[in-house]
Design goal:
Number of helices: 0
Strand order of the largest sheet: 4-3-2-1-8
Radius of gyration: 14 Å
Structural class: mainly beta
Length: about 110
Amino acid sequence: MSRFLISTPCECQASLSATLDEHRHVTAGWATRSPRGRSAAGEADKELAPAHSINAHLDRFDVAWLCPYCGRNTLRTFDAGAMRRLPAASASPAAGLVPPGTTSSP
């Protein structure tokens, strides 16, 4: 199964990202803050950002995110030929993220 990574900045300067499957449907969406939001370990803060692909069957399609930092609904257009393919063995970059108010299962 082919997977792809897309990214775009939000108006609040957070970085919105998503992984897509071979049909260009979003499998995971997340946002990271700019360097001023880095944790004590020096890593950027990462939050879940609900995302959805629109007209994924077309070569030019849209992805919409809900930014967890500013609350904006951000819509961006992507070209299928410009997406970055992820290596087959890599885990989802959003793995380990848990929505606020829930607990992770062991």
